[in-house]
Specification:
- The protein has about 350 residues and is α/β, with parallel strands linked by helices.
- The protein contains 11 helices and 12 strands.
- The strands form 2 sheets. Strands 2-1-3-4-5-11 form a 6-stranded parallel sheet, with helices on both faces.
Length: about 350
């Protein structure tokens, strides 16, 4: 009798390859293929690679829509943001994407050019069409604290950087605490007062930092100097710095972010004001380049990774109905003391 040759697993066209085909080719169960497709832990690396190799050979692509209907979720978090031009927003978005991936979720980004009520509603409508399970809103400007703006009640929302803690779930850096620490550091060094290079007027974070700067000086019995504003950019810090450099009684400046502090350092250098001998400078953010400024910048460190992690955790808890409906979580800051601050000359 002729030897029987085992039938080979049929190689289906890419469009018709099924999970069962992958399971037969990889020599595993369909449940194992499902676990690998969904990124679950508990599958050893050798088996996982067998499944991935079989998927590649067969041209199999997991049917995310079918899985979503079966589970009742899309494993996707939407992110609405109104600007990607600031360090804080970019680093927060990066942290959200990283934290979401660790939880097995993808991120769908929807930038919105103009932060108005109509644009917010339109953004939520578009995200709903893209099938997301929850939404994180990175909203630097004052908008959600307006009684006229309402986010869709059926959407699970977490807000970053907004004065809306009584109405929504909010995660933010401790803007006020970080600013008070910066001001107190300069006062403890012996400076009679501290000037402030603030951010744009419509920014929630800028307002929090300005309010805390002013309050810290008043509590210390000092009269706050006039506020000087920038727009977060190094160029605006440079132009404001030219103004501050002309003031002989200006011996300490708290800049609301590191980019403006960089422009300020250039202006002071051009005007012959030494840092820190003549003027001490503190920034806010602790960007990766802050330690490479000349001199290295003393600055308030923000933990963007923790903000992103807490945002993802909060929106997942709300989706699973185990988290709070509203309230604010503040992530602590710390002061990174470098070479741009010192006691005033002769003091």
């Amino acid at each position: 009798m002729a030897e029987r040759i085992p039938a080979k697993v049929p190689r289906r066209p890419r469009a018709t390859a099924s999970m069962a085909d992958v399971a037969r080719l990889a020599g595993v169960s369909s449940q194992t293929v499902s676990r690998v497709s969904n990124g679950y832990v508990g599958v050893n690396e050798e088996t996982r690679q067998q499944v991935l190799d079989a998927m590649k050979e067969l041209g199999y692509r997991p049917n995310s829509a079918a899985r979503a209907l079966k589970r009742g979720e899309f494993r996707t978090i939407g992110v609405i943001t109104f600007t990607l031009s600031t360090t804080g927003n970019v680093r927060t978005l990066e942290a959200i994407a990283t934290s979401a991936a660790l939880e097995g979720y993808a991120v769908t980004l929807l930038p919105v050019a103009v932060p108005t009520e109509d644009e917010v509603r339109g953004a939520f409508s578009r995200l709903e069409e893209l099938a997301v399970d929850g939404v994180i809103v990175i909203m630097e400007v004052h908008l959600l604290d307006s009684a006229t703006v309402e986010l869709p009640p059926h959407v699970q929302v977490v807000v970053v950087d907004s004065d809306a803690g009584d109405r929504y779930t909010v995660v933010d850096t401790d803007q006020a605490g970080g600013s008070r620490t910066a001001v107190q550091h300069l006062l403890d060094l012996g400076h009679p007062t501290v000037w402030h290079l603030g951010g744009p007027e419509g920014s929630f974070a800028a307002q929090r930092r300005t309010d805390a700067w002013r309050a810290a000086l008043v509590e210390a019995g000092r009269t706050p100097p006039p506020l000087v504003r920038g727009d977060w950019s190094a160029e605006s810090g440079y132009h404001a710095g030219l103004e501050l450099a002309a003031l002989e009684d200006c011996t300490a400046v708290f800049a609301a972010n590191d980019q403006m502090a960089l422009g300020l350092l250039r202006a002071l250098h051009e005007r012959g004001r030494r840092v820190p001998e003549d003027v001490s400078v503190i920034g806010f953010d602790d960007i990766p380049e802050a330690g490479s400024f000349l001199p290295p910048l003393t600055t308030v460190h923000q933990d963007f990774a923790e903000v992103g992690r807490l945002c993802v955790r909060a929106v997942l808890r709300k989706m699973r109905q185990v988290g709070p409906e509203r309230g604010t979580t503040l992530v602590p800051t710390r002061l990174e003391v470098r070479a741009s601050t010192a006691p005033p000359s002769g003091g």
